[in-house]
Amino acid sequence: MANSVIVLDFGAQYNQLIARRVREADVFCEVLPGDTKASVIQDRAPRAVVLSGGPASVFEPGAPGMDPEIFSLGIPVLGICYGMQLMAHMLGGRVVAAQGREYGRTLMHKTQDSPLLAGVADPSTVWMSHGDQVMAPPPGFAVLAETSNTPIAAMADPNRNFWAVQYHPEVHHTEDGFKVFTNFLYQIAGITPDWKPDNVIASAVEEIRQAVGDGRALIALSGGVDSAVAGALAKEAIGSRLTAVLIDHGLLRAGEVEEVQAAFRDIDLQVVDAKAEFFSALGGVTDPEQKRKIIGREFIRAFERVQSLVGTREVLIQGTVYPDVIESGGRGAHTIKSHHNVGGLPEDIAFRVVEPLRWLFKDEVRRVGEALGLPEALVWRQPFPGPGLAVRIVGTVDEEKVGVLRQADAIVREEIYRAGLDRAIWQAFAVLLDIRSVGVMGDARTYGYPIVIRAVESLDGMTADWVRLDHNLLDRMASRIVGEVAGVNRVVYDITSKPPGTIEWE
Ligand SMILES: Nc1ncnc2c1ncn2[C@@H]1O[C@H](COP(=O)(O)OP(=O)(O)OP(=O)(O)O)[C@@H](O)[C@H]1O
Ligand SMILES: O=c1[nH]c(=O)c2[nH+]cn([C@@H]3O[C@H](COP(=O)(O)O)[C@@H](O)[C@H]3O)c2[nH]1
Ligand SMILES: NC(=O)CC[C@H](N)C(=O)O
Ligand SMILES: [Mg+2]
After folding, report:
1. Active-site residues: which are they?
2. Which residues bind ATP (predicted)?
3. Whether residue 311 has pLDDT greater than 70
4. According to the model, what pLDDT value does residue 87 have?
């Protein structure tokens, strides 16, 4: 990638937002751990480096540092919050715990003109979140802006191309925050914005062609957005030398196999029945991470069985996207959950895995899908996790519980669809809890499972809010679930956002 940016992550809540803003400026961007070595960065040849915020204080023992050599690479650097404090600390400035801490809305005044803050209102409303502050800038630095509590709200050494802001330009609440990014990327770092769907398509097609050579490849096709887009790219790249494989692990939703077969009639699609293997491997397991690892392994074993069935194929193409990588603890982030296709992969794999979308967020994948001309219903389909209903049963997984959940899930989705909310909602689904509660139905005592209804809105799956569904709609779902699904006697609605919850329950 000729025009790319690296974000060094010091544990900020907002580092993914930084990456998103850079990409919204049509510049490719990757997040790496804060302690990444200068040589690794040099190998990737980024045009700029951004230092993220973080919870630590630079002057405390054990605070995350960075390789000082990075300041000698001649690459423009932008420090944000902790990133600015680290820059000050390492280059000879002074950082202290502030008298007045600033959280939230703050009015900032410029103290001099600068390319970084060009076009930013003066004064302007910025979003702060810090307890420490830079008291003295390092030699060579000038102060660009201040607030009533923070004498150095922005600083720079234009000669060495080091720039920094104490506030958070990446959050929507900061007025003209995006301007800081475009100023830094285009004017200061001189980057050409070329991270656009057409270029993404061209480079993904090229990547697949290179990997497959004149051989053949398998694509793991779930019928979801990501694998449909990856499949379209693969078809563009290698045409009929592609076989699509849908694994029926017994954890799919009602009617799903038939739907995928109908939607992908024009490609060579093999449906593999792996129900027995998945159920036997999952038997008795309750730990969510263990479930995910088992599922990741069984997926690969199923692909390997197809591989030997349909002849030699060295490459397996998957629709992995960036959040799968991030949440699986890739790139130094904390492991939230091992996505089956990343953190759940076994070590011994009989083929090379190619993931043309692994740098993209979901909304970017959708833009690529639209640019490829895929049907709207496919591009805007609600996501469904690869581990399927297994991560929506809290407790052990067996065919009986999957059957119960599948029926409840079909009702939730049908009602959402009827209400015309299918596209407005990121995901709406049912979760089964492996506990029982007492109820009364037809004058008789019941002792059955509760079903949780979950409906969330999101842009990219990284953060989400629960949907304020109409009470009558919730009521219809609940009555139908208890009335139609044997074994369920109670329905609850999940009103947790992400964070602190995740979208799925496991
Ligand atoms: N049942 C399945 N059979 C074959 N491959 C699968 C199956 N489920 C998931 N995969 C593979 O794992 C990848 C990740 O799954 P994931 O659910 O994140 O993506 P998706 O299904 O393509 O899109 P969506 O997010 O819309 O559900 C898929 O892109 C696909 O390559
Ligand atoms: O292919 C997948 N394999 C997985 O292991 C997996 N886990 C979660 N998801 C989907 O990712 C998005 C974020 O989910 P969470 O908030 O539950 O982490 C949501 O859209 C989830 O449905 C998965 N997709
Ligand atoms: N958001 C941040 O990066 C905070 C930096 C540092 N922990 C402070 O409190 O000042
Ligand atoms: Mg899916």
Report:
1. 81, 168, 170
2. 222-228
3. no
4. 98
pLDDT for the residue 314:
81
Q: Do domains 4-188 and 197-379 have the same CATH topology?
A: yes
Ligand 1 contacts (CB < 6 A) are 220-222, 224-227, 245-247, 318-320, 324, 341, 381, 383-386
Q: Dihedral of the CA atoms 6, 36, 333, 62 (nearest 10)?
A: -130
Identify the CATH class of 197-379: alpha beta
Nearest ligand 2 atom to alpha carbon 498: 16
pLDDT greater than 90 at residue 359 = no
Give the chain's length.
506
Q: Whose CA is closest to atom 21 on ligand 2?
A: 385
pLDDT at 401: 98
CATH fold label, 398-493 = GMP Synthetase; Chain A, domain 3 (3.30.300)
pLDDT at 13: 67
**Which region among 64-73, 99-108, 497-506 has the lowest average model confidence (pLDDT)?**
99-108
Domain 4-188, CATH: 3.40.50.880
Cα-to-centroid distance, 130 and ligand 3 (Å): 4
